[in-house]
Every structure is written in structure tokens, then in C-alpha cells.
Specification:
heterodimer; A: about 375 residues; 3-stranded antiparallel sheet; elongated; B: about 90 residues; alpha+beta; HU Protein, Chain A; two-stranded antiparallel sheet; 3 helices; about 45% helix; about 30% strand
């Protein structure tokens, strides 16, 4: 489209004839225009010319990059880019040029048609090439001396055929004479090409895609996450009370209630577990912890059982710890971080796990602690 | 900088009156326009080239809705600065 240029001298000539000025004036004007435009760009970084558009210097920020050969980081320094923004009117005019003067749609098709013909020609030549070398020799030179009558007839026939069929394809002639395998395969492609080309011109193609399944999955995931968060962040007592209520309502609970008493009558152990009361352990007095090893603050991820293991060498002594601190502890499983825990010194008897009485005592303390847990 | 200022500068440099300069500039613009309409590119000596380039037709896809729209080909006016000037104005 923009193959022919309007060069500077042509512009000057047109200016002379149009505005009726001398060559000298036109030259000096154009030179001044050139230099002053550049100067103005340097100075103001923006020059507006009515009826044409705006020349502008646009800064390009420096950016980091990597040297391809060495892999080092380098910074590409910022620079200015010259940009020309045509006036709205001119822009629209130029767009119209595309619609009016250049028939954009038939062009490619025509090109394709021409290309197809060229390809056919080339194919024909390729097919001919081995024989073309023979042909000029065979029909004209060697045959003439041998049979001068026949080649004349052939000559008379051939040019007619060629003239008639040349624009379409010279290949066809050769198909008649000799059979070529690749040609019939190649020929239909170029001739078909230009036909389907104009068809795919849908202005708007809407993709019908249903994302409902994906959306459903996402919603389910979000719900699960919310539930998990709620379970994690809600205060424990509230959750526990809910759980208890749920347990009361559940049908399984009713069944266990019916079964439990029957079994409880049979075995004493279950009775003990089911209903613990302090009165059942009358022989134990409250222990007075007078000697302390240390007073430690509860830290994150610690437990009474763990502390008992550290100080006494066995996790089973944890009820003593709870007992010693029961004045300010509620739930032995849920102790706030930073709570001071008194670690008492245990007597030999208290630590003797083989002693029946000590075991009983520990069990009593543990059950009392678990009662507080509920 | 506006056209008026540029006219003043050109008038100073060439020694012509502002009125003549303005007329010459508008004539130049008219010539440039007409030649562009004829499909010619304009070579501005020492500055660059103004030419019409075809932007090809294409199908765009809306990223969210997946809707496909056909954008027909159109022509754009493009300015290509001369290499000299480009380098000169890079650092200011």
C-alpha cells in the first residue's frame, strides 16, 4: 500500500504550485519546519500540529534484564521514544482509506487464486522437468528427420491444447500423456483453498460452556473451609455444649443409655467409670504440696503430661500437677499459655507406681481432674 | 507546544511572516493528507516517515466470558522516525 513515497522534493514542488511561493521560500520553510520541529521536540517533548497530529516524546522507564550470554543482571537504561498520534479526523480518514480504496477481502482470495495457479504451474514444470529436456528434443529435432509428417500433426495439435488449457493447468496435458502420482494429490489443494476462505467470517462466535460443575466444586470447597475455620476459632466451651446437646438428641445415645445400666449392674468397673463420686475414695486426704521444684509458666504446645514426664520421668504423674494447681486451673486439657504451674516435689511413696494405694490415689486425682474437664 | 508556537519558531528561523508560515503549514498538511489518502507514504526529511499500515483482521476472545469477536482489518497512520533523530532524542 505504502510502496510509493512522497519524498521531500516532491513535497516542496507541490507546495510551490499549491501555495504559489518561490522555490527559495518553500525550501526555507521546509528546512525551518524540520529543524524547528526537532528543536521543539527537544524543548517541550510535545509538538501539536493542527490538521495533522501530535509528535510526542514518551519516556521508557529503565528496566532490569539478564545478559543472555553471561546470565548477569543488567539494567537497560530508560530512553525516550518518539510517538506520533494522528488527529482524530485524520485517523478516521485513514481508516476509511482501508474500506474505500483497498478492497481488503477479495485481495487475499485473488492472491490465493494467483498462488494456486503458480503452484500448479510449478508443479507442472517439476513434473515436466525430466521430460521437458526430452520433449524439445523428441518432438522437434529427432522426430522431424524420421517422420516428417507425424510431428507436424502433433505440433499442430499441441499448441492448440496448450493455448487452450494453459491458464488453468499445464499439468492436465501431461496427465494424458504420462501418469504422475503426486500431481492429482497436489492439484485439489490449491483449487479448493480459495473457496472455503470466505466462509469463516462469523462476526461473533459465542462459546457455549457450562461451568456449573466447576462452580459447584468451588462452592463446596469454600463451605468446607468455612466450617473448618468456624470449628477452629469458635470458643471451646460453646462447641462442647453443642456437642453435648447433639449427643443427647442423637438416637444412638438413647440406645447406649438403655444398654449401659444393664452392663453396669454386672461389672463394678463400668459402674465406677459411669458415675464417679468423691465419696468412693474416702481414704484419701487432700495432699499438701509444701516443697516445690519450680514454678513454670505454661508455654505453647505444652501439656501437663509432658511436664510430668520432664520433671518426674513418667507421664502418669500428671494428676499431681493438676492437683497442685487446681486452685487456678479448670480444664487440664485447655490451659492458657503463660499460666504459672507449680511443680511440687513428690515423695517416694507418691512416685511408687507398684504401690496399690498410690495407683488408687492417682486414679482418684485423675478422675477428679477429668470431672473438671467435663 | 501548540501549532501557534511552532509557527512562531518557523517564522523566526525562515524569516517569513507568521501569516505566510501559517498558510504554508496548512498547505503542507493538506498535501500530506491528500497523498496519504492516495495510499502514499510521506517522507519528512530528517524527521521520519508517515505511512499507512494495515492492521490485520483478527478474532479476539473476552478473557472472562470467553466471547469471541471478529475485529476487521483496518489501517493505521504510523510514524517511523529517522534513526538519527531516534538516537538523538533518546537521551534528553
Amino acid at each position: 500500500m505504502a510502496e510509493d513515497k512522497l519524498i521531500w522534493s516532491e513535497l516542496r514542488r507541490a507546495l510551490m504550485t499549491r501555495a504559489g511561493v518561490s522555490e527559495k521560500d518553500a525550501t526555507s520553510f521546509l528546512n525551518a519546519f524540520q529543524t524547528q520541529l526537532i528543536e521543539a521536540l527537544k524543548e517541550d517533548k510535545q509538538v501539536k500540529i493542527n490538521g495533522l497530529g501530535t509528535f510526542r516524546l514518551q519516556p521508557v522507564a529503565p528496566r532490569k534484564s539478564v545478559d543472555i550470554s553471561t546470565g548477569e543482571e543488567i539494567t537497560i537504561e530508560g530512553y525516550n521514544k518518539i510517538i506520533f498520534a494522528p488527529e482524530a479526523g485524520l485517523r478516521e480518514l485513514v481508516e476509511k482509506v482501508s474500506v474505500a480504496s483497498s478492497p481488503a477481502e477479495p485481495d487475499p482470495i485473488q492472491k490465493l487464486g494467483v498462488q494456486a495457479e503458480e503452484i500448479v504451474d510449478i508443479l507442472g514444470e517439476l513434473g515436466q522437468s525430466p521430460e521437458k529436456q526430452e520433449e524439445p528434443e523428441s518432438p522437434e529435432e529427432p522426430e522431424i528427420p524420421e517422420t516428417p509428417e507425424e510431428p507436424e500433426e502433433q505440433k499442430a495439435e499441441e499448441p492448440e491444447e496448450q493455448k487452450a488449457e494453459e491458464p488453468e493447468a499445464t499439468v492436465i496435458i501431461h496427465e494424458k500423456e504420462t501418469v504422475y502420482v503426486p500431481e492429482p494429490v497436489y492439484i485439489p489443494e490449491p483449487t479448493k483453498d480459495p473457496e472455503p476462505e470466505p466462509e469463516p467470517e462469523p462476526v461473533i462466535i459465542k462459546k457455549k460452556e457450562s461451568h456449573w460443575f466447576r462452580n459447584l466444586l468451588i462452592i463446596l470447597l469454600i463451605l468446607l473451609l468455612l466450617l473448618a475455620c468456624a470449628y477452629y476459632f469458635l470458643p471451646r466451651p460453646m462447641l462442647e455444649s453443642w456437642r453435648d446437646k447433639a449427643f443427647e438428641w442423637s438416637p444412638w445415645h438413647a440406645q447406649t443409655e438403655q444398654v449401659a445400666p444393664v452392663e453396669a449392674e454386672n461389672t463394678e468397673a463400668i459402674e465406677n467409670q459411669a458415675a464417679f463420686a468423691e465419696e468412693e475414695y474416702p481414704e484419701f486426704d487432700e495432699i499438701v504440696y509444701d516443697q516445690l521444684i519450680v514454678t513454670e509458666r505454661m508455654h505453647y504446645a505444652s501439656r501437663l503430661a509432658w511436664m510430668s514426664y520432664r520433671f518426674y520421668g513418667d507421664k502418669r504423674y500428671w494428676p499431681y500437677l493438676y492437683d497442685a494447681n487446681k486452685d487456678h486451673l479448670d480444664n487440664p486439657n485447655d490451659i492458657d499459655v503463660g499460666t504459672p504451674i507449680r511443680v511440687p516435689k513428690l515423695t517416694a511413696e507418691q512416685r511408687d507406681l507398684n504401690n496399690e494405694r498410690t495407683r488408687k490415689h492417682l486414679e482418684f486425682l485423675r478422675k477428679r481432674a477429668e470431672k473438671a474437664m467435663r | 507546544m501548540l501549532t501557534k508556537d511552532l509557527i512562531g519558531l518557523i517564522a523566526n528561523a525562515s524569516g517569513m511572516s507568521k501569516k505566510d508560515t501559517e498558510q504554508l503549514l496548512s498547505t503542507t498538511n493538506a498535501i500530506v493528507r491528500e497523498n496519504l489518502m492516495d495510499g502514499k507514504s510521506i517522507q519528512l526529511q530528517g524527521i521520519g516517515t508517515l505511512e499507512i499500515k494495515e492492521r490485520k483482521e483478527r478474532v479476539i476472545v473476552h478473557p472472562r466470558t470467553g466471547e469471541r469477536t471478529y475485529v476487521p482489518s483496518k489501517n493505521q497512520l504510523v510514524f517511523r522516525p529517522v534513526a538519527n533523530l531516534k538516537e538523538e532524542l533518546k537521551k534528553i
